[in-house]
């Protein structure tokens, strides 16, 4: 199997990677203090008590203008009666569409329109966990997939700004926290330098992604997981259904970048079936959390992918609403976000500078699980 996935010019690859990481370390000498922990979560600050109960929200969509609350809002929790969404509106080139007014957004929960209580726009710094498959199954030392993984990981790290927080986790049979959240690029590059020789031949994607989602759900503010993976799961304790439920409840957006797309063309037929399932899983994780899945075949596609992730995360709309269905029944509630003309209720027409219509898509999590009474 290694014959179609080997990388012949290993000395040149290693020399290039060491030179790249050394130059990056030399250029970035700034950063916070060296105190770290192993929580992979920034501490939650204290919050005020939830607002008192208000009158029931009518099921009919209301055009009443409520005061805007600008800023970042936390995720849905069982102890508050507010659902919060981070929404990205992208054109057909995956560029964010700015300056959409609050009145043009409509949120439906289980097909029932909801009244928006808070709305904000911001270009916030990114808080990202870089979750990397690093297994001897596909990424043995010197293989082309090993090289592609490191190229993508280092390439994404280069796009980070000074105030972006990033953590690095690698997984094979288990997850390995290589660096906790930090704005210090030196620590990020030091973590990536640990990716040299893979250990186990397992790739437990479901376990790793579920654990990371659970950790990230405890972080306040705008956040995301950038997943570099083949999409193949070999030996997870969790099934796909159980992993999906955890990921849906945590609702941290997953931006999935699939590895080995070009090599799959020449893979044997049996492996191709497994890869098709892997692609479907990557698509599912991204779609259900409000992220995007990418399937690059060429290295030249990486810069545009990183730019799309950055634009999506830095230019989102924050929407909060109190659900009309306040039952604590533990059931899944489906969320749909639409853009409408406030005057007619018809789908909103977005035009470019030449007054030609623009096709757009709305990226948001597709729902949440209501709390139970015992919670």
- What sort of overall outline do the alpha carbons produce when their principal axes are compared? globular
What would CATH call the architecture of the largest domain?
3-Layer(aba) Sandwich
Strand order of the largest sheet: 7-6-5-8-9-10
What is the structural class? alpha/beta
Average pLDDT, to the nearest integer?
79
Q: What's the gyration radius in Å?
A: 22 Å
Write out the CATH superfamily name of the largest domain.
von Willebrand factor, type A domain
| Strand percentage | 15-25%
Q: Uncertain regions: pLDDT < 50 for 5+ in a row? A: 1-39, 41-50, 52-79
Q: Helix segment count?
A: 7
Number of E-type strands: 14
End-to-end gap: 50 Å
Compressed to H and E, one letter per element, the order equals HEEEEEHEEHHEHEHEHEEEE
- What is the CATH first-level class name of the largest domain? Alpha Beta
The percentage helix is 25-40%
Domain tally: 2
The largest sheet is: 6 strands, mixed
Annotated CATH topology of the largest domain: Rossmann fold
Description:
There is one protein chain. With 375 residues, the protein is an alpha/beta fold. It has 7 helices and 14 strands. A 6-stranded mixed beta sheet has the order 7-6-5-8-9-10, sandwiched between helices. A 4-stranded antiparallel beta sheet has the order 4-11-1-13. Helix 2 (144-158) runs antiparallel to helix 3 and helix 4 (205-216) runs parallel beside helix 5 (240-250). The longest helix is centred in the C-terminal third of the chain and has 21 residues, at 269-289.
């Amino acid at each position: 199997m290694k014959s179609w996935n080997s990388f012949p010019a290993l000395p040149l690859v290693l020399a290039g990677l060491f030179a790249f990481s050394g130059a990056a370390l030399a250029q970035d000498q700034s950063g916070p203090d060296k105190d770290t922990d192993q929580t992979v979560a920034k501490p939650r600050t204290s919050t005020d008590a939830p607002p008192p109960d208000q009158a029931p929200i009518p099921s009919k969509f209301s055009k009443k203008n409520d005061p805007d609350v600008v800023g970042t809002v936390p995720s849905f929790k069982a102890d508050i009666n507010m659902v919060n969404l981070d929404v990205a509106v992208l054109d057909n080139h995956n560029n964010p569409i700015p300056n959409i007014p609050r009145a043009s957004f409509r949120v439906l929960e289980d097909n029932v329109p909801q009244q928006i209580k808070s709305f904000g726009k911001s270009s916030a710094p990114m808080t990202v966990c870089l979750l990397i498959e690093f297994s001897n199954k596909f990424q043995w030392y010197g293989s082309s997939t090993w090289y592609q993984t490191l190229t993508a990981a280092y390439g994404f790290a280069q796009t980070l700004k000074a105030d972006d927080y990033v953590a690095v986790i690698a997984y094979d049979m288990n997850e390995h926290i290589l660096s906790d959240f930090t704005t210090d690029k030196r620590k990020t590059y030091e973590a990536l330098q640990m990716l040299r020789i893979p250990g186990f031949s397992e790739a437990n994607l479901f376990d790793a992604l579920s654990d990371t989602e659970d950790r990230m759900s405890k972080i306040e503010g705008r956040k995301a997981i950038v997943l570099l993976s083949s999409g193949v799961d070999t030996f997870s304790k969790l099934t796909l259904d159980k992993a999906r439920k955890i990921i849906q409840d945590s609702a941290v957006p997953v931006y999935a970048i699939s590895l080995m797309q070009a090599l799959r063309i020449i893979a044997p037929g049996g492996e191709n079936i497994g890869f098709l399932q892997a692609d479907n899983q990557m698509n599912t994780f991204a779609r259900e959390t409000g992220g995007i899945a990418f399937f690059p075949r060429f290295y030249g596609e990486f810069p545009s992918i990183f730019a799309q992730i950055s634009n999506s995360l830095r230019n989102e709309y924050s929407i909060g609403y109190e659900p009309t269905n306040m039952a604590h029944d533990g059931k899944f509630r489906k969320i749909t976000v639409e853009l409408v003309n406030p005057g007619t209720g018809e789908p909103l027409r977005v035009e470019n500078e030449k007054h030609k219509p623009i096709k757009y898509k709305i990226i948001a999590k597709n729902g949440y699980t209501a709390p139970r009474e015992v919670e």
